Every structure is written in C-alpha cells, then in structure tokens.
Amino acid sequence: MIDARLAFPSSLRVTDARVGFVARPVENTLTDLWCLFDFIQPGFLGSLTEFGQLYRRPIEAETDVDKERIEELRAKISLQLLRRTKAEVAKDLPAKREQCHKLSISAMQLRHYGRVMAELKKAEGGRKHLEMVQVLRV
Questions:
Q1: What is the pLDDT of residues 52-107, one digit of tens each?
Q2: What is the DSSP string of 36-80?
Q3: Same domain membership, residue 48 and residue 16
Q4: Do both 60 and 28 map to the same domain?
Q5: Domain that holds residue 121
C-alpha cells in the first residue's frame, strides 16, 4: 500500500522522469492510485479533494454513477498504464529460487496471532480473510 504521507514530500523532488510501480493491486485503494499518479504526473487527476469528489466517493458508494465514473477514470488513465501478468513475462524471468528459514516468534506475537486466528474462525465469508491478512502484516 502506498503511504499517502510520503506522496507529497516525494513529489517535490525535481527529476527528468518518473516511473511508478505497483505489484499488489489487491491492497491498493483509489487514494493510492491518485498518489501514484500525482507523483508521476502532478495534477493529472486533479487535487486529492477533487479526485475524491469526482471519482473515489461515487465509486466507493457503489451506485449507478459508479459505473460511469469507473469507465471515465479507466479511459483517463488507460494510456498511462502498462499492465503485465506473470504469464506474459514469465519467459523473461530468471528461475525462481527459494530459501526457507524457520524463525521463532515472540510470546507477544504468538498471542496476537492466536487472537487473529480465533477471530478468523468466527468470521464468515472470504472478505474477512483479507482483513485478517492485513492485521497480521502490522
């Protein structure tokens, strides 16, 4: 996830070119998208407030307007994106190397893990699983 607090200071750097990469789209929000674009091409999606009013709020509200806004946003950013899947670039990737190391966790980490797992067992539906993964990351 992009830390929005870093977006403004990093955008002040003077550079000849800027490139943004996102490897985990499941974790990204519309605000993260704005931060990335504002770093690469400042002002392209307006201010964060304008972006929120025009795109983020209508899309997150899941109304009929959201479909129009999604397509409008997609059209606006489509020429700025290069999206590739692993299958498309697999032949160019080096062989995968794995190293496994067993690590011990502290008593506090073990208690936290136990609480999260108990919560996960009580939860219904797959959506809670992603939330728990996020909690465990912290």
A1: 998 888 888 877 777 888 889 989 998 888 778 888 888 888 888 999 999 999 99
A2: HHHHHSTTTT--HHHHIIIIIHHHHHTSHHHHHHHHHHHHHHGGG
A3: yes
A4: yes
A5: 107-137
